[in-house]
Amino acid sequence: MTRIITFIALLIVSMLSAQNKLSNFEEAVTLFNQNETAQAKVLFQNEVKKETENWLPYYYLSLMNATQALENRNDLVKMKAFLEAAQKNQDKINKMQPENAEVLLTQALINTGWIVFDPFEFGQRYSLDVEYIFQKATQLAPNNPRVVLQKTMYNMGKAQYFGQDTSEYCKELEHAIELFATFKPESKWHPSWGLPIAQSKIKQCKN
Predict the structure, then answer these.
(1) Would 29 be classed as within a structural domain?
(2) Where is the signal peptide (predicted)?
(3) What is the CATH number of the domain that holds 94?
(4) DSSP secondary structure letters along 114-181
(5) pLDDT tens digit sequence for 29-88
């Protein structure tokens, strides 16, 4: 009888512990989706210490750091630090999920960050890599709206850099928005971001 009670007690403790881990991760994803980057980072950093086999916390950390790098393009010291932090987490998920389109996209974003950081040093080195990544991601997940969106934004940025017309990419933005309407992530914790970015970019096409 004592053994049965002990087993039940351990089972309950295990279930409560798992639920707590889940709620912490869920809170981190919620904060990310609310653009509460600083708080989300803290929770995700705690998660990677506990759940080393779960690729999603590493993914979100990589994505947030890469995004912050581009947001700090006028401060090269900060930008470099964010890019290095992003790659540190990216190295983990590259090994864990090498054929995952979402993971490929974060690597493309980091590489794009290095191109922006120093076009003369990194432009030639990373531009072909980025284009190859987009090609592979498109093959793996052609109906993923983030694949279409990020590829289009990269091409628009490159066109702007060289003083070229970007209007030809507006249809691709529209296509991305259409894909967001039907895209179903694997779970509520998997990547679902991007629609507001696409909607903001499409407004530029109409102005």
Answers:
(1) yes
(2) 1-18
(3) 1.25.40
(4) HHHH-HHHHHHHHHHHHHHHHHHHHHH-TT-HHHHHHHHHHHHHHHHHTT---GGGHHHHHHHHHHHH
(5) 999 999 999 999 999 999 998 878 899 999 999 999 999 999 999 999 999 999 999 999
